[in-house]
Amino acid sequence: MATHFERQLEELHVQIITMGSLCEKAISLSNRAIRGDKCIQEIFDTDKEIDTKEREIENLCMRILLHQQPVARDLREVSAALKMISDMERIGDHAADISEMTIYMSNGAEKPDLTDIRKMAKETVVMLNWSVEAYVEKDIEKAEKDGMKASLIDRLRLTEERIAGMAEGLRQIADLEDPIGATLWEKVRPNGLRIGKRVVPLGVVGIIYESRPNVTADAFGLCFKTGNVVILRGGSDAIHSNLAVTKVIQDGLKKCNLPEDAILLVENTDRAVVNQMMKLNEYIDVLIPRGGAGLIANVVQNSTVPVIETGTGNCHIFVDETADLDMAVPIIVNAKTQRLGVCNACESLVIHEKIAEEAVPAIYKALHEKGVEVRGDERAREIVPEIVTATEEDWGTEYLDAIISVKIVSSIEEAIAHINKYNTGHSESIITKDYTNALKFQDEIDAAAVYVNASTRFTDGFEFGFGAEIGISTQKLHARGPMGLEALTTTKYVIFGDGQIRP
Length: 503
Hints:
Blueprint: H1 4-34, H2 40-67, H3 72-105, H4 115-136, H5 138-145, H6 150-156, H7 160-175, E1 183-188, E2 194-201, E3 204-209, H8 214-225, E4 229-233, H9 239-255, E5 263-265, H10 271-277, E6 286-290, H11 293-302, E7 315-319, H12 325-337, E8 346-352, H13 353-369, E9 373-376, H14 378-383, E10 388-389, H15 392-395, E11 403-409, H16 412-422, E12 427-431, H17 435-444, E13 449-452, E14 472-473, E15 481-482, E16 489-496
Parallel strand pairs: 3-4, 3-6, 4-5, 7-8, 7-12, 8-11, 9-10, 9-11, 12-13
Antiparallel strand pairs: 1-2, 2-16, 14-15
Helix pairs in contact: 1-2, 1-3, 1-4, 1-9, 2-3, 7-8, 8-9, 12-13
């Protein structure tokens, strides 16, 4: 359980992030003002918010210094915060000064060349984000210290781009049609009863997950939109990021006079807490595990609370004999290397023998240039001797790393049999010009998402138009594939009568 001091430090991190966001907003508004947009009052209001936030953070720092008397690194953190907020307050002042200058510019003065000013604004935002990220990136530091591999560290990283993606996901969820309360069908029985089937929330959704702090925001957005309460238990590897994201969301709910407890984060990262959550049938309506194979198996096998199973991703791409290699190579490189530590990354290649002599060298070269180790069967190694010998274990491994396996097959039937034997039911793809083979592959492959001539990296709620996702379900009950709003609902029957009794 986090101590009072730890909670104060997390609060400090959240407030720094919030103030940084306000400064970024002020810079953006001042840039708009000098282009002629009438946003001067908004700039002044933002500057006031920055001033208020500076005082709040300063008071928090003083409380920490007086009551906790931090030393070493903790003391440096608080000292750095005090220096940062002073500099950020000045950014707000300068933005207000720029807005006042626009009044002069609009009164007939010669318009200056604003190219350099816009460049300066852009660079300032970049440096501001770097500063804030460097200050709060504690999860990354711990992961690196613990020796976590780079692909998994990447899952923890909250870059400016990823934070923007989290925000965009929430905006998309907000814009989606609300499914709750919709009547799926209604009919009148011969006895006059009018029976309807209506969409309702699941209730309390518990999510147990590892890494990926973006899950915190995605899970809240989807659950909130569908009228569910969400209880989150993230891993120790992302606890600081999860606390920060949760605090921002709770602050937003409070400002809107909505219940802050619509999202709850379990701060205790002890594994015993997971076991307790799995037995809370009275309080939790459904559990969704999201993470590695061990976590998912533990929840599925031991939970008495109903479970929606998300799966690991041993995803394949089959290069058919008619494949266009100019298409296949970029698809494979993207599917494998765009992000290594994700469940929809390609982990295994299956290549038809009739195209192997041409395909294997081209694919190997492209992957090798990206730092990917290729492990293959003897037929693949005969073509490219630099390929590492694959073992039986390789065919069923979700590497989440710069490693991929290669299997040469004699037919599409052999490819399908191999994939269905070793896949995890997640995402599979075929590269082909043969329409019949494309349909055969989609019909016979047992997986949640089956692609033709496209990267497996698109198996994602955001890319499917769901705004975000709770996870990728590889089971066949209730939900399958990227789980958006619909997966977080259930149904009830509503019956209207006028005195009917059963004879």
